[in-house]
Write a structure and sequence with these properties.
CATH class of the largest domain: Alpha Beta
CATH superfamily of the largest domain: LpxI C-terminal catalytic domain
Order of helices and strands: EHEEHEHHEEHEEHEEHEEHE
Oligomer: single chain
Largest sheet: 6 strands, mixed
CATH architecture of the largest domain: 3-Layer(aba) Sandwich
Strand order of the largest sheet: 6-13-11-9-7-8
CATH topology of the largest domain: Cytidine Deaminase, domain 2
Helix content: 25-40%
Radius of gyration: 19 Å
Structural class: alpha/beta
Number of helices: 8
Strand content: 15-25%
Amino acid sequence: MRKLGLIAGNGKFPLIFAEQAKRKGLSLVTVAHRGETPKAIEEVVDAVTWIYVGELGKIIRTFHQAGVKEAVMAGGIQKVKLFSNFRPDLRGAAFLARVRSREDDQLLRGVAEELEGEGIRVLESTLFLSQIIPSEGVLTRRSPTQEQWEDIHLGFQVAKEVGRLGIGQSVVVKDRVVLAVEAVEGTDAAIRRGGDLGKKDFVVVKVSKPQQDLRFDVPAVGVDTIRVLHEVKGAVLAIEAGKTILLEKEELIQEADRRGIVVAAVQDRNKD
């Protein structure tokens, strides 16, 4: 049986990845983060070691002891936890002392290099998940209006620039005005903030960063995102086609249709 390491972050993504990997017959050796990873991960994988954010040495030891040669990072870590739940071991502290940037991509790419330097190859987190990464098109019964398409295209352009700067991946737009930009608070909080300003019928756009490494930190939205949008009277969720994971895809689309919310997957019009 092929053995795979799983570095599990927060949200439902690690659970969904683990379920798909198990269906493929893989044995999962998992490192889960305290205060981040759902406890339910223990019911899906073969072995779990719980760590605090920053315990890089413990991740490497766990994988070496289990004979893991390949690993996947699934799920993020809330950046605010770096201020409250951060307990690096000696290897983690040494790593942080060397890195110059605290941007998510740079940190994760650095962690991947540390693992690969120890003989543990880091694979794409989208492994086994092609069925929940939509191609271009409108996914719901309703389609955007012409005005909403204009907001989508503006939001896409702005979100790419925000991502290029390493700030976030989502923006909220209404009538060609940017209402909110996601930072460390996360997508749902940015939607609520934009909703307070836009009141109703606004557009949310979530994209991958231009420098996105698909081995980790792939944009993801779930049913909860649709529920937050409905709560604050948003109208449209636009995601980047081919680069965004729809967690609980069928349930998400059904919930959007039930709430009258548009979900569309959009291609980057500026890519080569």
